[in-house]
Amino acid sequence: MAFDMNSFSLQGKVALVTGASHGIGMAIAEAFAAAGAEICFNCSNQASMERAVEKYNSNGIQVHGYVCDVTNEDQVDDLVSRIREEVGIIDILVNNAGIIKRIPMTEMSAEEFRQVIDVDLNAPFICSKAVIPGMIEKGHGKIINICSMMSELGRETVSAYAAAKGGLKMLTRNICSEYGKNNIQCNGIGPGYIATSQTAPLRERQPDGSRHPFDQFIVSKTPADRWGIVDDLKGPAVFLASDASNFVNGHVLYVDGGILAYIGKQP
Ligand code: NAP
Ligand code: GCO
Is the beta carbon of 48 within 6 A of some atom in ligand 1? Predict the structure, then answer.
C-alpha cells in the first residue's frame, strides 16, 4: 500500500500537554499545532499561564490555557471535563509537567522525595486515568510520557527524580499492556540533557566566566557534542502522537544525541 504522509498529521485531534507554559512542553505543543492539532495546556499558576498564552498567540498559535495542579485528582478531573465541554474529547495526552530536586539522598527529606514522586509519577497516573475513558469512547488515543535519561541511569543528588522517571517508564509499559486493545498507544520520550530552565543551574557560567563543569561533562558524554534544544523533541513527539506510530506501543524513544549509546570521550 502506498505510504500516506498524512499519517503524520494531527488535523482534527485535541491535544493536552501538561506543564506547557514553557520549555519542552511548549515546544511539543507548538509542534502539535503545526501538525494541525487543537492545543490545550495547563500549568501551576495563573501568571505563568497568561504569559504562555501571550507567547503562543505571538507565534500565531491559538491555545486553550488552564491552571491545574496535576497532582490534584479533583482538579485534573475538572480540567478533562472542561476540555471535553469547551474543545472536545482529548485524543492526545502528553504527561510533561515535572519538577526536579537536586539534593544528596541523605540530606533529602521524605517530604521532598514525595513532592517529586507526586509531580513526576503520581500525576502522569492521575492524568492518564482521567483521559483513558474518553479515548476508549472515541476508539483511539495517544499518551506520551516525558521520561528521562534518569529512566535508565542514576547520578548523585537526583534519587527522587530517577525513581520517578524509572517508574514512569514502567507506567508507560503498563498503560500499553492494559489499553493497547482499545487502540491506545502509550509511549515515552526520553530527552537527553536539554537547555531549559530546569537545567539552567547545570549550565551556569562560573564566577571566573568558565563553563560549568557539568556543562562540559555532558557535552563530553554526548556524541552530538552539544546540549539538546527543545526543538529537537518536536519531530519525535509528532511521530508518537500521530497515526504513523499506531503499532508503536510501550516504547521509550530516547532523544539524547546518543548519550545512552556512548561510553564517553577518553579524558
Ligand atoms: P520546566 O522548564 O521546569 O517546566 C516545567 C513545567 O511543568 C512548567 O510548565 C510548570 O508550570 C509545570 N509544572 C510543574 N509542576 C506542576 C504542577 N504541579 N502542576 C502543573 N504544572 C506543573 O521543565 P522542562 O525542562 O521543560 O521539562 C519538562 C519535562 O521534561 C519534565 O517532566 C522534565 O522532567 C522532563 N525532562 C527534562 C529534561 C531537560 O533536560 N530539561 C530532560 C529530560 C526530561 P509553571 O510554569 O506553572 O511552573
Ligand atoms: C540532572 C538533569 C537531568 C535532566 C534530564 C536528563 O540534574 O541530571 O536535570 O535529570 O533533567 O532528566 O534526561
Answer: yes
Indicate if ligand 2 lies below 6 Å from the C-beta of 100: yes
Determine the distance separating the centroid of ligand 2 and the alpha carbon of 192, expressed in angstroms: 7
Rounded Cα–Cα distance for residues 121 and 147 (Å): 10
Return d(Cα 237, Cα 134) in angstroms, integer.
21
Reduce the DSSP state of residue 94 to 3 states and report it. strand
Q: How confident is the model at residue 267 (pLDDT cuts 50, 70, 90)?
A: confident
For ligand 1, whether the C-beta of 199 sits within 6 Å is: yes
Total-model pTM: 0.98
Task: Please state the atom number of ligand 2 nearest to the C-alpha of residue 149.
Answer: 13
The C-alpha cell at 200 is 539552567
Q: How far apart are the first and last CA of the chain?
A: 51
Active site residues: 161
The CA 26 to ligand 1 mean position distance, Å, reads: 10
pLDDT at 200: 95
Residues with Cβ within 8 Å of residue 115, at least 6 apart in sequence: 99, 101, 160
Q: How confident is the model at residue 108 (pLDDT cuts 50, 70, 90)?
A: very high
Distance 53 CA to ligand 1 centre (A): 17
Q: Is the pLDDT of residue 265 over 90?
A: no
Over residues 202-249, the pLDDT tens digits come to 999 999 999 999 999 999 999 999 999 999 999 999 999 999 999 999
Ligand 1 atom at minimum distance from 52 CA: 46
Q: How far apart are CA 230 and CA 146, in angstroms?
A: 13
192 lines ligand 2 (CB under 6 A): yes
